Amino acid sequence: MTLADCDRVAEIRIGGWQRAYRGLMPQSHLDGLSVTEDAARHRTRFAAADGSALDLVAERAGEVVGWACHGPYRDGEVRTADAELYAIYVDPAHYGDGIGGALLGESVRRCTAAGHPRMLLWVLKDNTRARRFYERAGFRADGTEEPYEVAGVPVPEVRYVRELAAA
After folding, report:
1. Taken in order 51, 67, 22, 40, is the CA torsion positive or negative?
2. In the Cβ-directed half-sphere of 133, how many Cα atoms lie within 13 Å?
3. Which residues, at least 6 apart from 151, have a Cβ–Cβ distance to it below 8 Å?
4. 12 φ, ψ to 5°?
5. What is the pLDDT of residues 64-106, one digit of tens each?
6. What is this structure's pTM?
7. pLDDT in tens, 3-25
8. To 10 degrees, the CA torsion angle through 37, 101, 63, 51?
9. Using CA atoms, how far apart are residues 61 and 72, in angstroms rounded to an integer?
10. Rounded distance, CA 26 to CA 10, Å?
């Protein structure tokens, strides 16, 4: 990913939230998401990056159609030896095209090569589509749940884990 990709990544991320989380979060919250504000956050984060997190984009015909970000697992403020998939989103027009699987596969490959023993991620408990996607990729819920609240509405998350093969 480059700094120039931040606007398109924000479009994909906000579009992904608005589609994937419909019915799982308050609609007023989803409707209030701003691509412009999200792009500005991405540019700020990207400019201040310390190299521990890696942003990947998928392109088709020269257009960014997907984004993933991974880095060290965050256990509160402590980073562990494990890796964490922080985010993965695909332009809804490209759902089912294999882009999400390719991005996830590349993140897993890079984390394995970097020597991380496991990759973890958090997913909304009721997001069955995403949970099936991760399960098909070898991730399993490990029984850990975390409260998450959006606009006063609980939307709990569950943690998924995948053991990584030795590099």
Report:
1. positive
2. 23
3. 25, 26, 28, 29
4. -65, -45
5. 999 999 999 977 666 789 999 999 999 988 988 999 999 999 9
6. 0.91
7. 899 999 999 999 999 999 999 99
8. 60
9. 31
10. 20
